[in-house]
Amino acid sequence: MNAPRENSIQAHGLVREFKKGPRAVDGIDLHVDPGEIYGFLGPNGAGKSTTVHMLTTLLPPTAGTATVAGYDVVKEGPQVRKAIGAALQEAALDPFLTGREHLRLQTTMHGITGEERRQRSDELLTRVGLTEAADRKVKGYSGGMKRRLDLALALVHRPRILFLDEPTTGLDVQSRTALWVEVGRLAKEEGVTVFLTTQYLEEADVLADRVGIIDHGRIVAEGTPEKLKADIARSTVEAVPANLDQRGGVAAVLERFGEQTTGYGPGSVAVQLSSSNGNLAEIVRALDAEGFVLSQLQIHEPTLDDVFLAKTGRHLEGAGDEGEPEPEQIAQPASA
Amino acid sequence: MTAIALTQTAALGGRAVIRTARQPANVVFPLVFPMMLFAVNAGGLKAATRLPGFPTDSFVAFALAVPFVQGALLATINANVEFARDIQTGFLNRLALTPVRGIVLLLGQLGGLMTIAVVQAVFYLTIGLAFGVRLASGFGGAAMLLLLELVIALGFAALGSWAALRTGSTEAVQGLFPVFFVFLFLSSMNMPRNLIEADWFRWVATINPVSYLIEAVRSLVIEGWNWEALGLGFAAAGGLSLVGFVLATRALWRRLERT
Amino acid sequence: MRDVLAVARGVSWRVLHMFFTNPAFLLPSLAFPLFFFTAFVGGLSRISKVPGFDFPSGYTAFQFVFVLLQSAAFAGVFTGFGIARDFESGFMRRLMLAAPNRGGILLGYVVSALVRWLTVASVVTVVALLAQMNIGGNGVDLFGLYALALLLNLAGTLWATGVAMRLRTQQAAPVMQMPVFLLLFFAPVYVPLGLLQGWIHAVASVNPITALLEAGRGFISGSPELTLAAFAIALGLIVGFAAWAVRGLKSAEAAG
Lengths: 336, 259, 256
Fold this sequence. Notes:
The structure holds three protein chains of three kinds. Chain A is of the alpha/beta class. In chain A, about 35% of the residues lie in helices and about 25% in strands.
């Protein structure tokens, strides 16, 4: 087969079991189009990194198949590695080497030698803004600088597909934004397909063309951020009665306008509205008619966290800190 | 091995050397500690040369063999601690994501460690010469000594790499040091085997491969060209290297689960 | 006084609990002295045949004294490692906050080092007796030997404590360990002082450990010598290192 391979990622029924422990990845189907930025969003322990490790050939799947850049991840591992670049969860740098020495080593490992190696290193250092720090040892780099070097190392061999595993965790806002700009540029201007895992809603919202939400090793929702939110389609109204004893009454009124939900402030009552227009005025009139006085009334637009909540019954942020629930609890929303 | 693979091996070996050179403790300790022990033993056991049958009247010459073995051990343990750290930090994964062949990852590490050990050996030789030791085997013997040091270092390096790859733990690799230290002391390190009085100790020293490493180096210093001692030394070093290399290779395939 | 003892009891209980219930601490402490004893006696006993090696009780007893003193000193050094570890983990701060009298913390570490060493010394003694070590000395002589070792343990502990209190990091381990190692090994380890020659003889002659070694060997062979000098040196080391440790404690307090 001599036709050029495409820059896509496909997985069918991907499973990874570890000897001691639950299934980290439990049957994942996904498709990432060439040139797309695919956001893989989920809490800690959801299976994001394990999925990345399988797609980048670092871990063989227990079951299922996957092709990356048109190559089978199990049978054509070396070809996959030639086509991809990866910046994994740990920056994985040698503190005693300089940035330039890292690039020298990485280019050598990719078989890039001589003048081309020097040129490529200089180009990447300029691109990630590390030219001045290039000859300093990495142990003196800030977190943002390490991440930028990590990205540069992933790009030495001009990969067609880039895997980024939580690339902005622990970075300040400025560094994070700079990385987003670069990732966006790679996809839009160079046509690089980007598979990005994150636990940050904003990152997925801003950067990703499509988002897959993973929980307990399974994809629970997939689509563009707008479509996912539109499927939920409902704003949430949160009300805090001035007299907390009246929570039950306020809840009864609000439930005429939608379905009660949880996860908001203490003492508050929240409902997801069944339609989006004009309800706020009606809600205020209805509460006023019943004589309820509120200390607070807010309307929340849907977020990816609402999508996660709708699909799993838990909020995304902080969800990874919980212990592994029993499987039958996943389908049931938490009680009010 | 292709030209690319050789270049990659050299790059990885170079990294191991640079990483050691940039950590003063990893440079100074393997140079200084064996020399300290050498000084203590050479001074403290000088009287042993008066024993009937002692092969030389210079205990300095007799004891000079030990730093070559001890230094190789220290350097390779330190560098393999860094190798374990590569596994812990994910640096090995970074290398595994490149087209580099798995065996090159190991060969590069071993090559770097062997280079470090030879540089140290030149230091010990220089110190020995400065203290009046003259190699009975001459200039050729010095070259043979460095070759022997390469193989000794390969043996220790391979075993240390096996521990690093098998466990991925810096503490586990550090824990090898006392184990090897025991082998060093339960050898003909301080007394020729035929003069060891305690039967059980002589038996232990006889089955201990480290004795043959030391005796081979020692033969070049105090005897000249003792082909039997050299042969046994190379055989012991070669055996350790082969066992270590096989173990390390198997551990590498298990560690690099990549497809 | 009551406060001091209460704190000391708490600190020493914790250290000893960790020591006895943690093989990673207990086994090396036992193994290394036994190993050195075995290696030296087994590998070097022939050296006692060198003309001029006049030690009546034999090479086993000769090396037993060195190993006993070495284990005493190093039990103190290992206690210093633990103190440094406590600083790094933040536990020392908790101790300093809780202790009504911080001198009790020092005393607690000293007591725990002593108990650690007594444990090791018991095992080493049993092994030496099983190896048919000849004891020429009587009960008083043996008491003198173990008393010397006890004083060296105290000195080693106070030295390492002072270093740990000042540097407050496990990277201080070589600073604690190397001087003790050098002092022990630049002494008549393998042969009596009279059989050393050259620079090592000169160094060993001024090394305070030499007096302790020679006195200890005198005790075990039943021919006590340099007794006063040895005890004076040991007490001098203790006084000096006690001041070192106390000032180290003050430095740690000042650092917060």
